[in-house]
Amino acid sequence: MINWARLAFQRLTSDQRRTADTHLLKVCIPGLEGIDIYLKDESTQPTGSLKHRVARSLFMHAISSGKIVKDTHVVEASSGNTAISEAYFAKLLELPFTAVMPRNTSQSKVSMIEAFGGRCHFVEDSSQVYDAAQALALEYGGHYMDQFTYAEQASDWRSEDSIAASIFRQMSSEAHPVPHAVVMSAGTGGSAATLGRYIHYKGMDTKLIVTDPENSVFYDSFIKKDRSLTEANGSRIEGIGRPRVEASFLPEVITSMIKVKDQLTLATMYWFEELTGRRVGASTGTNLYGVLEVAAAMKARGEKGSIVTLICDDGSRYADTYWNLEWAMNKVGDFKFEAEELRRYA
Questions:
Q1: 194-233 residue pLDDT tens
Q2: Are the beta carbons of 342 and 271 closer than 8 angstroms?
Q3: What is residue 230's predicted lDDT score, i.e. its pLDDT?
Q4: Quick one: average pLDDT of 6-33?
Q5: Cα–Cα distance between 117 and 69 in angstroms, integer?
Q6: Long-range contacts for 329-335 (Cβ within 8 Å, ≥24 apart)?
């Protein structure tokens, strides 16, 4: 078993060294002169999303803790991106893998999980994924990875290979090297925890602004300082928002939060395509709307500076959902009014 663990760490470390950095893109927004907007492009990771870093950390954490050994069947509760990345690493380590996810997860994500040799187990509602994943792991004699509990523990926020360190290193030669704010949406809360901890660790003045979609409990929990809150409905923005406060969500490192209407998320996605010619995923739309809110407040105060956010994944994964206008209108609602509101930034 020790020899297998050594080989596993070698393969995981090799992947980390090959893929440690991603591009930081500067985007010019005509209505926000004097405020520089940057997007850390995590869609260029080998598995196409921010969750590539998280999944690798979760495997390292579980193997070093003795939870995963040779032939362990790994089970995860995920709406897609984490499962895709974990399926990739499970294949790399020659481990069986099952993802538990809501039935409405986009077909493109399901296909990618299966392409890496993983299998998908569907539940009707996002609130059911936890119990179903635990039950399957017990049935298989395997390990429930549980990203919602361990994402913030597994991520090495002090490492110079972390996403936070990468952002600030890449910003060092820009006009405003210390960002006014970093804007990040919350799924598990792990990425926001990494960013917030690093900002505190380095003693920076940068604010961490966390965006949250409708039908998610994080925002209300942050405002009310109550971790016991739950939400009956699941988020319509795939990959972010949760019906309960996850263990990886650390409100103490967050400066403030912004609640984003789902129609505004979609309107921002379509507006960004008009601006740049690029399609991004829905969670990135939530991030970008938060950036616009922060930037508009800075402009109103006569401030200049920089704001950083993340491209969590590419829009191609949502060709049959959010980027299908008929589907989007039916599932989320008409967002023509919100789209018109964004034209002030054109």
A1: 999 999 999 999 999 999 999 999 999 999 999 999 998 8
A2: yes
A3: 95
A4: 93
A5: 18
A6: 331/236, 332/236, 332/262, 332/263, 332/265, 332/266, 333/262, 333/263, 334/263, 335/263, 335/264, 335/266, 335/267, 335/270
Domain positions in the chain are 18-44+162-332, 52-152
At position 292, the amino acid (one-letter code) is L
Q: What is the largest CA-CA distance in the chain?
A: 61
- Asked whether this chain's domains 18-44+162-332 and 52-152 adopt the same fold, the reply is yes
| pLDDT band at residue 1 under the 50/70/90 scheme | low
Fold of 18-44+162-332: Rossmann fold (3.40.50)
How far is residue 242's CA from residue 263's CA, in Å, rounded to a whole number?
A: 18
d(Cα 286, Cα 341) in Å, to the nearest integer?
Answer: 15
**Structural class in CATH, domain 52-152:** alpha beta
Quote the CA–CA distance of 192 and 222 in Å, as a whole number: 13
**Residue 224, Cα to own-chain centre: how many angstroms?**
24
Give the C-alpha separation, 260 to 246, whole Å.
19
Per-residue pLDDT at 127 exceeds 90: no
What proportion of the chain, given as a percentage, has pLDDT over 70?
99
Give the pLDDT score at 281.
96
Q: DSSP alpha helices (H): ranges in 66-119?
A: 81-92, 107-115
Angstrom distance (rounded) from CA 244 to CA 230: 5
